[in-house]
Amino acid sequence: MQPIRTFNVSPSLPGRLEPLRKLAYNLHWDWNVETKDLFRRLDPDLWESSHHNPVLMLGTISQARLLEVVEDEGFLAQMDRAAQQLDGYLQERTWSQKQRSNKPKECYAYFSAEFGLVDCLPIYSGGLGVLAGDHLKSASDLGLPLVGVGLLYQQGYFAQYLNADGWQQERYPINDFYNMPLHLERNPDGSELRIAVDYPGRTVYARVWRVQVGRVPLYMLDTNIEPNNPYDHDITDQLYGGDIDMRIHQEIMLGIGGVRMLKALGYNVTAYHMNEGHAAFSALERIRILIQEEGLDYPTARQLVNSTNIFTTHTPVPAGIDLFSPDKILYYLGHYADIFGLPKEHFLALGREETGDLSAPFSMAVLALKMAGFSNGVAQLHGVVSRQMFKGLWQNVPVEEVPIAAITNGVHARSCVAKSTQELYDRYLGPNWSSAPSDSPLWERMSAIPDEELWRNHDRCRLDMILYVREHLVKHLRDRGASAMEIAQAQEVLDPNVLTIGFARRFATYKRATLWMRNLERIKKILLADKTRKLQFVIAGKAHPKDIPGKELIREINHFIREHDLQKQVVFVPNYDMYISRLMVSGCDVWLNTPRRPREASGTSGMKASMNGLPNLSVLDGWWDEADYVRTGWAIGHGEMYDDPNYQDEIEANALYDLLEKEVIPLFYDRDEDNLPRHWIAKMKDAIRLNCPFFNTARMVQEYAERAYFPASDRYHTLTADHYQPVKELANWRMKVINNWYNIKIKDVDVSAGDDIQVNQTVSVTAKIDLAELTNQDVSVELYQGAIDANGEIVNAISVAMNYQGSSDQGLSVYTGDIIYESSGFQGLSLRVLPKHELLSSPYELRLILWA
């Protein structure tokens, strides 16, 4: 029966408890211990059963309990403290305000297909989403004028359960938006704020929801409304669900709809950040608005978009990039080509590396890279991988100079460190530990934390995790209809006094979740041989519903457990989520990560573990390649890469077993007369002291601000001044350079020295160049020097700018410069010409370079 009217029924709170509503609707409660404790205190059972959702709690808690706490002076005092803490947080002067106090009004928009903020908002699948959520939290802490843009999924990512055979099954619980910490955005007249996006033959509408993340609003689009047809309702149904057509529908809504949403909300965005290629269509919509609404031509509009766009790639392999067929792109987005005045093949070339290959698919990563003035990978090694992967976009640019930077990921410390551990750090390090840089003197206080206190705290965290795992397994087995014997067995899994290794990952095959099982006899020997030095594993993670090999890995683990009667020592925890993650990264003793190098872009769960004092046991990939892996854990291998994956697996599995037998297990069980593993505790302290200050989003988001947001926003204000006059001039200059570039001729290069020179000898170079219709103001001429490798290429090069000396009698531009070689050996020299303009985001922005 369909209703004739609908109502949004809000919780009814006694007036004295109204602060609870404000606290519930701002996710600041997720990283504020006082507020989270307050909601747990209100009703501990309801807090757990609601998946830690304070809005749902307030809507379902009994009025009798509310009337009871109105008379509870202790509860009221804690509520008032929490409310004051939120108010103080929102009003305090921030890092961003201090950095940008003299700047015009600015706004940074952060687009992501998923956001992992809290477990009661299941609209994330894994590391990408949790990273995006932590990005917003730290942007809030720093006071950046940032807004998030995403999609609000009715079902989100799937809930996982295992059948009796250990095979992953999926359920899709419906998200009840009205009982989540969400606000429905409305027009001044009270009607829902909606935006419209054109799809072939129809218009799709979306309403706007907001979740408040401290100071930062995250706006999300929801298409599950009338008058959309049933197919269009499903655009925001499942995260990464559906077929390729649904994927392009979602990415159009995220990118194009996201830009329209920000405009409808009244934001004047000065820098746009695309977190992965899913949002790359936002660039097309921005260009359209500048052409149709601001009157700019296509080259000028594209220049402005390029100058103010930022792109972060998380993909370490080409197979991870979204690709669409040319026909599909033209069917859904061909009208943009008409608006831009581009032939269809030129429009498709925006998403192609090989622009002459007319059959090549359209790559979202390539579109994002071509439309961004600043691009980056998410770890130093991932930056190297990304430059190699996308070097074809910058022909003749040395791979190490391909303009894809690296900003190493981090995690939000207050969100991932256990409550008791935070309180320990607050006591001994002070309240600023979560954002203090590496050179802060507070990290010297780590030694002041008594070994006994740190270890007893960790013992409690391990016990908390084990108790939860038992309870979680029992519920899972009961839901599955398991036998009484299985349920009784689940109530006794894991030993709170045993060395516990944690592994929690998305079950993609390259992450090698079963590497530790490669030699079954050897791992069984390690698990069962010594009753006084036991080892146990806690394992969790989901495979994508369509990833059959990933699901096979989950089943393989569960079969191994059952066939070898290891239910007490090896546990697979179903339906991994943020809550389980937080228990594992604080309650395990070692964090295991075994990707096939170099395919792990970052690996943020290991950072969370280290912040809780867990040593990492990992292949040198992602963030771990940058960490002090000797003092804060153990490295599996030495960073080798192999052509034969089977051989690699064999070598690294054996290295893992050796480390467990010879180093990890002995160190953990090496106890003194107080039964304390002093050397292990020292490694824990090093893990905290050396990793916490760097691998956190406070440092990461500051780096994005200083390297990307601030420059892009400044360029926006510069280029749009005087009715867009500067960007028009820059676009005209760009066209002039492109039209004349291939007429430039390097006529003569005169080197003052012969073939044999000495270290630190000055070598003078004079070059004569025909710049065609360009001037010395339009180009930079550089000497390029470095050692010669076995292939005859200059490597580890440095560039030295040459000085313009005027024109020769023949009308050639004369440049001079000096070079010095500081080391002996076979060295090389070349000369190159690059475009030069003060408003370019990079000298490689035009993708033009000329070599001698």
Describe this structure in words.
- About 40% of the residues lie in helices and about 20% in strands.
- The protein is of the alpha/beta class.
- Strands 1, 2, 5, 6, 7, 8, 9, 10, 13 and 14 form a ten-stranded mixed beta sheet that branches. The protein has a six-stranded parallel beta sheet with strand order 17-16-15-18-19-20, with helices on both faces. Strands 21-22-26-25 form a four-stranded antiparallel beta sheet, with no helix packed on it.
- α2 runs antiparallel to α6.
- The chain is globular, with a radius of gyration of 29 Å.
- The protein starts with 18 loop residues before the first helix and ends with a strand.
Largest sheet: 10 strands, mixed
Strand content: 15-25%
End-to-end C-alpha gap: 78 Å
Unreliably modeled segments:
none
Please count the beta strands (DSSP E, at least 2 residues each). 28
Give the SSE layout.
Elements: H1 19-24, H2 33-42, H3 44-49, H4 54-60, H5 63-70, H6 73-91, H7 95-99, E1 108-111, H8 127-142, E2 146-151, E3 159-162, E4 168-171, E5 183-184, E6 194-199, E7 202-213, E8 216-222, H9 230-233, H10 244-264, E9 271-275, H11 281-292, H12 298-307, E10 309-312, E11 323-324, H13 326-340, H14 344-348, E12 362-363, H15 364-370, E13 374-377, H16 380-389, E14 405-406, H17 413-416, H18 419-429, H19 451-480, H20 484-490, E15 499-504, H21 520-528, E16 535-540, H22 548-563, E17 570-573, H23 578-587, E18 590-593, H24 604-611, E19 616-619, E20 633-636, H25 645-668, H26 678-691, H27 697-740, E21 745-751, E22 762-770, E23 779-788, E24 794-801, E25 803-807, E26 813-820, E27 827-835, E28 850-851
Helix pairs in contact: 2-6, 8-27, 10-11, 11-12, 12-27, 19-20, 19-23, 23-24
